[in-house]
Amino acid sequence: MFRRKLSALEYHNPTGFDCKDETEFRNFIVWLEDQKIRHYKIEDRGNLRNIPSSDWPKYFEKYLQDVNCPFGVQERPESVDWLLGLAVRFEYGDNVEKYRNCKPATEANDAQKSADPLINLDINNPDFKAGVSALANLLKIQRHDDYLVMLKAIRILIQERLSPDAIAKASQAKEGLPVALDKHLLGFDTGDASLNEAARILRLLHIEELRDLQTKINEAIVAVQAIIADPKTDHRLGKVGR
């Protein structure tokens, strides 16, 4: 979700950045403050630069407060996205002439955007924000400072997971033969009849998984054999094969 902003800021690894990696995350925050945001004076950045410190989360929390970030330390993806947005705004402000000469979007892209009904929404309407937030919480979608982005994520989730076709496909139960659990020996006794029955079920499910795995292994063997079953003869070497 950060790739485009990281690329715009010329971050060295826009596609591989992982905000869940603690060391990488801390180094990224230092880079962002040193190179792009520059909210603190150079002499005041010592705490953020002290990456190994156990108190670093406290320093980062204070930093978020100082730059007026609406998200806290526990909301890492949201705070990272907000800081990236702030950095992009500063980057544009420092290079207005450079970006002023950028070519505008093509007419085709404009037509595509105008065809999107979400573009015409009033994203600053309090009712709109409250509704999107409620839907995001209900569907457990990650929060974002751009409510239109959240709404697009909600739309994608509904189309892929909650459409009639998706629900019908997910509701299709696998048909199988009935199994008499009492005819299958467990091999041990837990001392509880209910636990014994549950253990038999788990064993049968495990056996089913092993069968599926064996089938896939057999298919792989057949595929390999189809490749090597017709070796070429090299008469100069007096042997079969390459």
Write the layout of secondary structure elements.
Elements: H1 3-8, H2 22-37, H3 46-49, H4 56-66, H5 76-94, H6 96-100, H7 107-114, H8 126-139, H9 147-161, H10 164-171, H11 193-228, E1 233-234, E2 239-240
Organism: Phoxinus phoxinus
InterPro entries: RTRAF (IPR019265)
Family: Belongs to the RTRAF family.
- Intertermini distance: 48 Å
For the sheet with most strands, the description reads: 2 strands, antiparallel
- Sequence of secondary-structure elements: HHHHHHHHHHHEE
Shape: elongated
In percent, how helical is the residue content?
Answer: 55-70%
Strands of the largest sheet, in order across it? Answer: 1-2
Please work out how many helical segments DSSP would assign.
11
Rg estimate, integer Å: 29 Å
- Beta-strand content estimate: under 5%
For this structure, the quaternary state is single chain
Concise account of the structure shown:
With 242 residues, the protein is mainly alpha-helical. The chain contains 11 helices and 2 strands. Strands 1-2 form a two-stranded antiparallel ribbon.
Please explain how this structure is put together:
This protein has 242 residues and is mainly alpha-helical. It is 59% helix and 2% strand. A two-stranded antiparallel ribbon has the order 1-2. Strand 1 and strand 2 (239-240) form a beta hairpin. The mean pLDDT is 79.
Could you list some keywords that capture this structure?
242 residues; mainly alpha; two-stranded antiparallel ribbon; 2% strand; elongated; RTRAF; RNA transcription, translation and transport factor protein
